[in-house]
Amino acid sequence: MDSLQMKQFSVLLWKNFLLKSRNVVGLVVEIILIFLLFVWTLTVRRISKKTSISDVIFNPILLTLPKFLNENFDYELAYVPSESNAARNITEMVKKDLNFNFKVQGFPSEESFERYIKYENKDAHVLAAIVFDHKFKTSNERLPLQDTSEKDFLSCSIQ
Length: 159
Known about the structure:
This protein is of the alpha/beta class and about 160 residues long. It has 2 domains: about 1-50; about 55-159, no CATH class. Helices cover about 45% and strands about 10% of the residues. A 3-stranded parallel sheet has the order 2-1-3, sandwiched between helices. Helix 3 links the parallel strand 1 (about 75-80) and strand 2. The longest helix is centred in the first third of the chain and has 24 residues, at about 25-45.
């Protein structure tokens, strides 16, 4: 703070004190209450029992596909946009973690993916699609650190 701001702040405090000093009883009660709450807080902290909680370690969840999936079908994992190496790598990691023989296919836009599902996809079964809502400038661009997720991600209409 520079000198002018410090002077203004001290004048403001002095005016506040003068206004409060008009009602001396109220001022004394306010100061005593502040002091009592401070002492009460310190006392409660001192007499309260401190418990240490250990780290929570969860058991691993097995990543297995449901038994009703027929292994004779060619299932696909789709991702949008296809120009991004990061999107492809993430989809490939999902394929590897699920330990199932998926075909990984990328689409340049959501509209092209929707056209593929509605009109072109005759015998392949798209099991899941991952859509990255980010405009990639180059194929080697990394994913953004901020996440925008939609609450209604299951809203699809079949026509």
